[in-house]
Amino acid sequence: MLLGTDFILDALALEEIDHLFMVPGGLVDPFLPALGRQKALRPIVAAQEGGAAYMADGYARASGKFGAALCIGGPGLANTVTALATAQSDGSPVLLMSGEVSTLVEGLGMFQDASPQTLDDVEIVKPVVRYSSSIDNPRNLPHLFKHAMLLLRTQPTGPVHLSLPQDSLTGELSVHYTRLEPDLADPATLSLKLAESSLRHFIGSASGKPPAKIVILAGAGVEHANASQPLRQFAELWQIPVATTLRAKGVFPEDHPLSLGVFGYAGTHHSVSALLDVPPDLLVVLGSGLNERDTMHWALRLAPSTTICVNLAPVSIGTHTQSGGVIGDCRAYLTYLLSQSDKLRPTLQQTVAERAAWLSGIRSKARLQDIENCVSAAAPIHPARVISELRRVFPRDGVLVVDSGAHRAFAGHYWEAYEPRTYISATNLGPMGWAIAAASGVQCAQPERRVAVITGDGCMRMNGIEVSTAARYQLPIIFVVINNAALGNVWLRAHTLGPVPDELTSLPDHDWAAFAKALGCRGETVREPADLAGAFERALAGAGPCLIDVKAGKAFATPVKDWASANAAYSYHE
C-alpha cells in the first residue's frame, strides 16, 4: 500500500523527471513528508506559484521531457494562469498539480476552498490547458493521473492540470504507476498518403523543370520532434538552405553554410532574400503554426503549387493554405524523405549547382542589419553590443533564455545559436519576466551547461524576485539586465505620441545589482561598453548566480526593419 502523494512522486520519477518546482502551502502539506521519503526528485521552492510554473516550462523546453509544478489551489493556482497560457501558446508540456480541500468538505466554507463547489479551479484554467480535472474519488487517482500523462505527452504537446483533494493525497492505494510506452508518448505520426503526394513537389512535372530554388523554413515542430539531426542530414544531402522561425532558433546551426538565420520577427536579410525577394520554386515549412511572426506578418505567399506544409495540426495548415499539406511529425517526415533518396536523386541532384549559385548570391550580401552596432562605443550602452559581447565569451553549447521586450529583438537578431534547445524564449504569448524564472528550470534540466538570461528592467519589476530561487539553490545562472529605464518596446512607440505617453512608459533607474546581492546573488553594474567582456568573464568564473545590470540606452531602434516593411505592406483585404 502507498499513499496518493507517493504514487504521484513515484510516477514522476518513472517518467524520468528529476525536479519538482513548487510553492508549499497548507493544501499540499502531505507532499512535504512524501518528498522526504524519496530520492529521485529534487524539490525547488520558487518565490511565487507563477514562477514555479515558469520554471517547469523552462525545464520542459530545455530537457525535451515535461516539467512538473505543485502549488495550492485558489490563490496559488490563480497565480499560474499566465504561465499555463504561455506553455499552451508555445506547445510546452507542463504538468501543474494544485492541492484542494477534501471532497468530504467541499462547499462548506473551508479556508481556501476552490473546489467545483466554489471558485472551481478546474474551470478557471480549462481555457489555457489541454486538460483540467479534479480527482473526485481517491480510488480514481491512478487512472485519472495516467489519463493526464497521456494527454500531456500527446503531440502536439501542451500543459495539463490536476486538482488534488486532500483525501486523494492521503488515501492508500494498492496499485503502482506503470511508465507510458514510448510509442504512446512519441508515436512519430505521419500520413504516408500525403507524404508520398508531397514528393511530386521535389520531382517536378514530367515535362517541366524541377525546382532549383528550394528553401526549408523550420518551426517549433522540428524541436518538439527532436528532428534537428534528420533536418541537417536532408539539407546537406541536397544542399538546401534552411531558415528557422524565432521560436525554433538553434534547430539548425546558424554558422552552417546552408543557414539563412531567422525568418520573421527580428530575422535576417538572408532569410528575407531567399523567401520573399525572389520567391523560391519550392518552400518546405516544417512544424510552424504560420502565425504572424513566423510568416513575416503573413508576407509569405503559400501557394499550394510551390509549398509543402508539415504539421501535426491540420488547422495550422488549412488556415493559411488549402493544399500541399502533410499531416505528421517533422522527424517522421524528414526520415521518410531520406528513405526516398533514390527516387529524389535524379531531379534534386541536377539542381544542386544552380541552388548553390543562388545561395552564394544571397550570402554575398549583408546578413544582419546595422552590424556596426555590435561594436558601438555608445554610453549608455547599445543592446547590440551587449548581445555581441556575451556571445563572444559564452560557451558554444551554452543556453540563452530570452525574455519579452525590446531586448528580444536584439537577441533574436544578433545572437547565434548552434544547437536545438540552446535558445529558449516564450515567443508567442511573450509574458514579461518569464525568462527570469524559466532559467532556473532550464539550469535544472541542463546542469552541465552554462545558462544566461537576457532580460530588461521592466521584466525585473514583474518577476525579478525569482533570482532569489537561483541564489537559494546556487544555480550558476547569469542574469543580464538590459536596463534602459523604460518599458523598451512600448516606449519606442509611445514617446512619439507626446510627453504623457513618454512619462507613462519610462521607469526609475533601479540598482538591480544591489537588488540581486540582497537576495544572495553576485551583482555587478556596467556603464561602459569596454567593461562588458570583463563583467561577463567574471560572471562565468564565479560560483552561483550573478546579475549584471547593464545601463543601456532606450532610444536605440530594434533590428526589425524587414519586419516593419512587411507589416506596412500588408493589407487585410487582399
Describe the secondary structure blueprint for this structure.
Elements: E1 2-3, H1 4-14, E2 19-22, H2 31-36, E3 42-45, H3 49-63, E4 67-72, H4 75-78, H5 81-90, E5 94-100, H6 121-125, E6 131-134, H7 141-153, E7 160-165, H8 166-170, E8 172-173, H9 182-185, H10 192-203, E9 214-218, H11 220-224, H12 228-238, E10 242-244, E11 259-262, H13 269-277, E12 282-286, E13 307-311, H14 314-318, E14 325-327, H15 330-339, H16 341-348, H17 352-363, H18 383-393, E15 399-402, H19 406-414, E16 423-425, H20 434-445, E17 451-456, H21 457-463, H22 467-472, E18 477-483, H23 488-494, H24 499-504, H25 512-518, E19 522-526, H26 532-541, E20 546-551, H27 561-569
Parallel strand pairs: 2-3, 2-4, 4-5, 5-7, 6-7, 9-10, 9-12, 10-11, 12-13, 13-14, 15-16, 15-17, 17-18, 18-20, 19-20
Antiparallel strand pairs: 1-8
Helix pairs in contact: 3-5, 3-20, 12-15, 18-19, 18-26
